[in-house]
Sequence to fold (235 residues):
Amino acid sequence: MTHFDIIALFPEVVSPYAKASILGRAQKEKLIKITGHNLRKFSKDKHKKVDDTPYGGGAGMVMTVQPIDDAVEAIRLRKKFLRKHIPMVRVIVTSASGKRFTQADAKRLAGYDQVIFICGRYEGIDHRVEEVVADEALSIGNFVLTGGELPALVMTDAIARQIPGVLGNVETLHEESHDTEGFLEYPQYTRPEVYTRTLGKKITEDLAVPSVLLGGNHKKIAEWRAGESQKRRKT
Fold:
């Protein structure tokens, strides 16, 4: 079982997504386990404070080291949990300034026994967390979100899909977009063969499935799919 532990100020956002669809089924089958942890529970401050003003001045608050450090140490898998071997654990900070998360990272991280996410809030996290507590910092894109819970869930989803048995159909995994560098999956179609779209009272438009997909010639279908994938890669 692969453990995903998400340390956050709002861990309640983790459960609804983690229990649904593929991730929910994978948890029931004990292939993965996704747990949200409330950072405030690890604060030694009597008011359970986890942030403070930044040194050097500036707007906003910065998340402090102590609660995060203690949370990671409390959650980290030890040898007693996995008797066969010492657990492989990776600790990740969700950060807008981190390295861009890719499909290659999803494959790499799927090899760990436990992935711990530290979710940022406010103006960020004390940099000593990234330097000492975490193993790496990852970002899901060049934009700013309110907190790191969504990036942690995005990465958990992508990583979990790489774990054997989670998707069920191995072919689905092999033909996914970004599986190889620059590859984007070809367009997909299903019934009806022709969909008539109404644009106005007397105006219609027929949207047809490409004829090559209807002929049953698997070689031509494969060539068409490869060509469409290449077009998407160029654009």
Summary: The CA atoms of residues 64 and 126 lie 6 Å apart. The first strand starts at residue 2 and ends at 8.
